[in-house]
Amino acid sequence: MRQRLRYRFDNAMARGVGSQIAMLAIVTLVLILVTSTLLTLTGLSPQGHDGEPVSFGRLVWLGLMHAIDPGAVGGDVGSWSFLFVMLAVSFGGIFVFSALIGVLSGGFAQILDRLRKGRSVVIERDHTVILGWTGKIHALLTELAEANANRPGASVVILADHDKVAMDDEVRSVLGDLSMRVVTRTGSPLVRRDLDLVNLGEARSVIVMSPDGPEADTVVLKTLLAVAKAGDKAGKPPHVVAEIKSDKTLSVARMVVGDAAGLILTPPLVSRVLVQTGRQSGLSVVYTELLSFSGDELYIQSQPLLVGKTFREGLFAYEDSALVGVYTAAGERLMPPPFDRRFEAGDQVIAISRDDDTVIANGRPTAVADADLAPLHPHADQRPEKTLVLGESQLLPLVLRELDAYVAPGSTVLVVGEARHLESRLGGDALQHTAVTVRVGDVTDRAVLDGLDVGGFDNILVLAETEGRTQEMTDSRTMITLLHLRDILRRQGKTVPITSEMLDGQNRDLAAVTEADDFIISNTLVSLVVSQVSENRRMAAVLDDLLSPEGHEIYLKPARDYVQPGADIDFYAVVEAAARRGEIALGYRLAARAHDPEQAYGVALNPRKSARIRLAAGDRVVVLAER
């Protein structure tokens, strides 16, 4: 019996603070009832003011007061037996209320600990949910804050298997005061019960971050399954954006979240931008401006005023925006459409603009003098290129395939890296335009770099060597290689465009590189694309079109192919010159400002078309073209 009572007592106490308080209340009540009954039956009750013994109810009240306030015993009047009984009640009260204070203190500690762990349900609406915590979170939050700057009360909820206090501290220390509210919760995105904490049913979008490690796609896929189940339960499937690292996972993820979700295959994305920016000085600044919400970015909007006009006429219909494509009423995406295609009712334009409210058909084109335009002749033919690729990276096969899609036949690539997996990563894919040579060596070794004739290459790509290294160690090796390359080229008196891949954007400042073609690609690139797609689900396909080797891409071409050097013109003239070539002018780059970070390295994307400019022979025009 004793064991059973002890077992029941243990179970009752283990139920929490409420059960413990109830047990103490029962002990107090029993103590008071027993002593009151004893005093009544033994006749030890003191006499009241009327000369009669105090009633049972009055004794219960006196016992309660003694249990609550032990000092009340000093005012008792009666026999010594009565006084000792009341003293015993006071001692019992001291025990009970001391235990109660301990229980309440422990209960409050549990409540504070639960709050610290972030286990309460989020009551937010129209918020963005981020599942996971990686090095990309800082850039992602910054971009989301820019995107939601005109939305009062905008909020982001982060659910990750990290300590809430640590996440909150990092958000405050790294990002400072954001214009939006950031709420953190501790939990696993793989657990349905934890997903219920972030109120997925009321979210405007859900971003699934890819963790570091070889099984990243497995974690992302399981998270997508949990999100899909939670969305079915809420009755409102949220807009999902997820990072995928393997194309093998992409098809499975599509089956889970459907075609409407924004699934971003990050290795091809990074390799495409790395190759394109490596071949065109200044293009990195264009992409940064285009993908960041702090500058001019892409918008998709209806423009009924253009109905009946051709796409070529639409190029001149905007003073503060640059038209790049059309979403037809049937849902077809044209990037760009034929220039003679006429806008129909229900069509939406795809335009580069400062904000969504600046996409206005307010253009007032001026007459263009043919004397200000360059003669219409083909662009210079491509010549074979020599490219140096430094670093053993998992992106290497993708980089070589992307590079092969752009270069002329007869081009060569020298790959230098460590011996562990270099040969196997090259694979057996046959390249059509490029001959690849492999040399084993440590890319941070000055002796190895001195033996490469660095100045004889047309482009240099430095890849991040991530395998077996931390993020900081990877970026440190990249910076060492970059500094050696710059010193070698300076001693040789030569200039070769260098594009370096880094993982942490904060390390870019430490590299102390001040040229546009030295733009360092990092996790920031993925964060920019993720934030764009999270705000507009159709943006994934638009960005894929812009970054793909097929179709139209962004180029920086010699300004002398479009306008007469030194002519006093407005940008409408540049738009006309590009349109005659079947291209779309998006901006320009001034060679005189190519080394000035305060002037965006000379790049002006989506300039005001009526502003007067003079383009020199060494300047470039940013165009959307096939080649």
Number of helices: 20
**Count of DSSP E strands?**
22
Beta-strand proportion: 15-25%
Helix content: 40-55%
* Outline type: elongated
The strand line-up of the biggest sheet is 3-2-1-4-5-6
* Unreliable stretches: none
State the separation between the terminal residues, measured CA to CA.
90 Å
Sheet of most strands: 6 strands, parallel
Overall mean pLDDT score? 83
Rg (C-alpha, Å)? 36 Å
* Structural class designation: alpha/beta
Question: In summary, what is this structure?
Answer:
The protein is α/β, with parallel strands linked by helices and 627 residues long.
Provide an overview of this structure:
The protein has 627 residues and is of the alpha/beta class. Helices cover 41% and strands 16% of the residues. It is built from 20 helices and 22 strands. Strand 15, helix 17 and strand 16 form a beta-alpha-beta unit. The termini are far apart. Its main location: membrane. This is Potassium transporter TrkA. It is found in: Endomembrane system. The chain crosses the membrane at residues 21-44, 80-109.
In terms of topology, how is this protein built?
Layout: H1 2-14, H2 17-42, H3 56-68, H4 80-117, E1 128-131, H5 137-147, E2 155-160, H6 164-175, E3 181-186, H7 192-195, E4 205-208, H8 216-234, E5 240-244, H9 247-257, E6 262-265, H10 266-279, H11 283-291, E7 297-302, H12 311-315, E8 322-327, E9 333-334, E10 348-353, E11 386-390, H13 396-406, E12 411-417, H14 422-426, E13 434-440, H15 446-450, E14 459-462, H16 471-492, E15 498-501, H17 507-511, E16 520-521, H18 523-535, H19 539-547, E17 553-558, E18 569-570, H20 571-579, E19 584-589, E20 603-605, E21 612-613, E22 620-625
Parallel strand pairs: 1-2, 1-4, 2-3, 4-5, 5-6, 11-12, 11-14, 12-13, 14-15, 15-16
Antiparallel strand pairs: 7-10, 8-9, 8-10, 17-22, 18-21, 19-20, 19-22
